[in-house]
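re: ur msg from earlier - yeah i can do the NAP complex, just paste it... oh wait u already did. ok heres what im feeding in:
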Amino acid sequence: MSEHSDPQPFDLVIFGGTGDLAMRKLVPALYNIYKNGGMPGESRLIAVARTDLDVAAFHDLMASDAQPHVHPDLFDADTWATFISRVDFVRIDLMDGASYAALGECLDKQPGNTRLYYLSTGPRLFGPICNHLSANGLIKSDSRVAVEKPLGHDRASANEINDLIAAAFNETQIFRIDHYLGKEPVQNLIALRFGNSLFEPLWRRGRIRDVQITVAEELGIGRRGEFYDRTGALRDMVQNHLLQLLCIIAMEPPISVDGDSIRDEKLKVLRSLKPMTPERVVNNTVRGQYVGGTLGEAELPGYLDENGVPADSQTETFVALKTTIENWRWAGVPFYLRTGKRMQTKVSEIVITFDSLPHSIFSDQIASNSVNRLVIQLQPVESIKLHILSKKPGDALTLKPVMLDLDLSQSYNANYINAYQRLLVDLIAGKQALFMRRDEQDAAWAWIDPIIETWRAHGVAPKPYRVGSWGPAASGGLLGRRGLSWHEETL
Ligand code: NAP
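and the outut:
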């Protein structure tokens, strides 16, 4: 399938069109795309769910549940009115193959439109949906399917689901979503690394001391207790988001920006991760589970007191781990990853710390040890900042740390654009670079599975950490062995 530069008229079919993801993210993102002229010809949104609604009632639901998630600066009542005239609703039980005829009738009204199927339902429906679409003849050679996480809970189950999808769609038609790859600073990091000659000589062992990736959430598990308890932080966050970020940092320059070139390089990184033997799992991973405590003004319960969580649950709500990449560029450079719920603050950032000076002529002043850092923040604000030492204006030769802003997103109003919008634009254009290929996902699970297995076999219980903290103290210990600490100064 070719990668189109001009979008062709399309039908975006959202299975699970009444759900939380559709209302909070997908519909607002498509509205923005429509406003920017990105729904050419008679392109449509077709929402699919079981709830008994007619089209007018679905439009009302969009007004109450999706419209508030459109950025107020981008909302315009006239544009919204013409946007919803492009929105249809089809009521189907997705498990019932016969009911897909109604979807077929709706699609046949615009037979020339490219069919984009977005699976925004629980993963147990992915197989049946693909099967019924295929059996009802609703997949054409230019159709595409986007699949949300989670795709499996280990390597074997991910393979099962991928086999079911592959029975209906070719790999070039499958777009596996990791919305972290749609975030502006992540895409900007690709531009920064491969659009400039400046960083390349520094982007390696001997120049970079360590890399830290933190995805910390203040949120707990909300109403997802049962789901979360089966999943845990390692599967929910590390297997996909954190490893994908690691790949973007560590990959070699791709030969082009096309889908397979970037994904080939990311795959090599995943295959170069030092395998997690039981000994390394025990020494280099930390599991945690939050216990009651204070976050801001609020007194919050611990994980075991959350709805849907068994009183003796051993599921981790926090993971920290250290890994290395066994190749010429990165051998010996530690990569530290951590993620957790009910942490002190909401922040997602990548911190690349450069090596310290061989000798400082300013040794009587501010610690000049490893002050050069590239900090790529994804949340709560999107930014890329380079930390350097500079002379304090006016005084004699006195140094002070300053941060250079390398990200012009503010000037371009790019913060109005969410990750889902960027990914939908690429789905519409048929560009796969920012979606996970099956072999990448398989390589990630192949690395994660031994961690899960060792935790189970060795009875590694999660360590308690207080709500509103930075996780168990042992997480700091992972870095402390090298005299390092987590970067928390801007947090
Ligand atoms: P949700 O709020 O529970 O929505 C599920 C949707 O699926 C509803 O529209 C529901 O509609 C529909 N559905 C369920 N069974 C159906 C059936 N048999 N036939 C037809 N429609 C059916 O879930 P969500 O939060 O939107 O999440 C959807 C998927 O995205 C999940 O896999 C989730 O893990 C993933 N995800 C969600 C988020 C997020 O922020 N929400 C983020 C990342 C990934 P009816 O009840 O009307 O049938």
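cool cool. The chain has a mean pLDDT of 93. ping me if u need the other ligands too
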